[in-house]
Design a protein that fits this description.
The protein contains 21 helices and 5 strands. The chain has helices spanning about 1-20, 25-35, 45-60, 60-90, 90-100, 105-110, 115-135, 140-155, 160-170, 185-195, 195-205, 210-215, 225-240, 240-260, 265-285, 300-310, 320-340, 360-375, 385-395, 415-420, 435-440; strands spanning about 380, 400, 425-430, 440-455, 460-470. A 5-stranded mixed beta sheet has the order 2-1-3-5-4.
């Protein structure tokens, strides 16, 4: 039954992945895959590598770009089932997988490819290897932990907290410090470091720009406030689904109490993998916004906590809540899928995240006609989102280049001098338009009005269109 559900959902997600347009971030990550590199400004390279492999197998289309996500959505639940089964038995494992399949965040994550795609999988694989280690006491599992942790470091910097969780487990779990005398532990650590070398080398060659960009957020203090914490809690309730979120909170408290009071091995391992990242983002939310997807690696652990709570013998009515938790979550996920495929209603200039999926093919064709009419040889932008979307829609027929943030594109061949000297059509969202940037780089800047990207008759976004000439090289 469970395997059938995973397979059916996999087919549904493959259909959706092939049928909807790319998000802005996906279109940008596709540019990574055009010339795979050791790493990139925003994130480690695994997402770009996965997209490159998917494009090689299925072509330069939405399904090819997202193929790795669809395959990951088939493997991830099996890894979760094995981890939960080893530690908590078949009943918890079965419920946990149903819950993770139903969660809206994981449903969206089963279609859209982001750095969370490999990050969540590698986090789960490393946790599974630790569970096998704990049960078997076979030190060779440390080598597998090192491989999966290293691949996680190639996926997203968030996976550094998996290392923090391992250290916490080594010091917290009863009898675990003895592993420090095992050569396999140190070999596993060496494997993880070796696998992460591409990221280190790229940063060393580019003045540690990626580290500065991502870790620089830690020092951006906006003053203490509970606003962002409230946002984070509300987002968790929506992305996990409200009833699953309630169960997960109860189960987390129960598991944490068991780990602290009795140092119960199963709960200790579960909490060690969850607490460092959760504690960091809860603290961060007291002075800065935490994007909901940043906690994505923890949602499988939240599903296990929810499954534990559903089986508790209490007077809180948890089993009645558990009866409706999964169906309600599936309904929420189905609504998200249906809205992404065919929005029931889209308000003009909507801030709906799904608006970025629509209207790009027609919009790009319209812009290309304007470009040709004015003798421009290439298109210019000033944001990665517009760059990525236009580049995908035009499929190499016309060069598209962002005029600022060149470090995002150092892996791509530069625009040749002949094309660069030719007039360019500048296209950018009105709110992102920076006239000072254009006048600093071009002597001729001519206003061609505005154009709208539309979904049917509904305008989604308005863009400034300018003709740029005489670059000031």
């Amino acid at each position: 039954m469970l395997l059938a559900a995973i397979a059916v959902l996999g087919v549904c997600r493959a259909f959706l992945a092939a049928s909807i347009g790319l998000t802005d971030d996906e279109a940008y990550y596709r540019l990574w895959a055009l010339a795979p590199a050791w790493s990139y400004l925003d994130h480690p390279p695994m997402t770009g590598w996965m997209i490159a492999a998917g494009r090689w197998v299925a072509g330069d289309n939405p399904l090819g770009i997202r193929l790795a996500t669809v395959l990951t959505s088939l493997l991830g639940p099996i890894v979760l089932w094995r981890f939960a089964h080893i530690l908590f038995g078949p009943a918890v494992a079965r419920r946990a997988v149903w819950m993770v399949l139903a969660m809206p965040l994981m449903a969206a994550g089963g279609v859209i490819i982001t750095p969370d795609t490999p990050s969540v999988l590698c986090w789960g694989l490393a946790a599974w290897a630790l569970a096998e280690l704990q049960v078997s006491r076979n030190a060779h599992w440390w080598l597998a932990v090192g491989v999966f942790a290293g691949c996680g470091l190639l996926s997203k910097y968030t996976n550094l907290f998996m290392g923090a969780g391992i250290l916490l487990w080594l010091t917290w779990g009863a009898g675990n410090p003895r592993w420090l005398r095992s050569w396999q532990l140190w070999a596993g650590g060496a494997i993880a470091i070796l696998l992460s070398l591409p990221v280190l080398l790229w940063n060393a060659q580019h003045e540690w720009a990626s580290f500065a960009k991502q870790f620089g957020r830690v020092g951006r203090d906006q003053g203490w406030t509970f606003t962002y914490l409230a946002e984070l809690i509300a987002a968790f309730g929506g992305l996990a689904s409200p009833l699953i979120a309630v169960l997960a909170t109860v189960g987390l408290v129960h598991a944490l109490a068991s780990a602290v009071r009795r140092r119960e091995p199963r709960h200790t391992l579960l909490m060690a993998g969850l607490l460092p990242l959760l504690g960091y983002f809860l603290t961060h939310s007291l002075h800065g916004r935490v994007q909901a997807n940043w906690l994505a690696p923890l949602y499988p652990a939240f599903a296990i906590c929810a499954a534990i709570a559903a089986l508790l013998d209490t007077r809180l009515g948890l089993r009645r809540i558990a009866t409706w938790a999964v169906p309600l979550a599936f309904v929420g996920s189905a609504v998200i899928y249906a809205h992404a495929l065919h929005p029931l209603r889209m308000a003009p200039y909507s801030k709906d995240p799904s608006a970025q999926l629509h209207g790009w093919a027609h919009f790009a064709a319209e812009l290309d006609a304007v470009r040709a009419a004015h003798g421009a040889c290439w298109m210019a932008t000033s944001s990665y989102a517009t760059t990525g979307q236009l580049a995908f829609a035009l499929k190499g027929r016309v060069p598209v280049m962002q005029l600022d943030e060149p470090l995002r594109y150092v892996h791509l061949p530069p625009l040749d001098a002949r094309t660069r000297s030719c007039p360019a059509l500048y296209v950018e969202l009105e709110r992102r338009h920076d006239s000072s940037l254009l006048h600093a780089q071009f002597a001729g800047v001519s206003d061609l009005g505005t154009r709208e990207r539309r979904y049917g008759d509904v305008p989604l976004a308005r863009y400034v269109v300018l003709l740029l000439a005489s670059p000031q090289l």
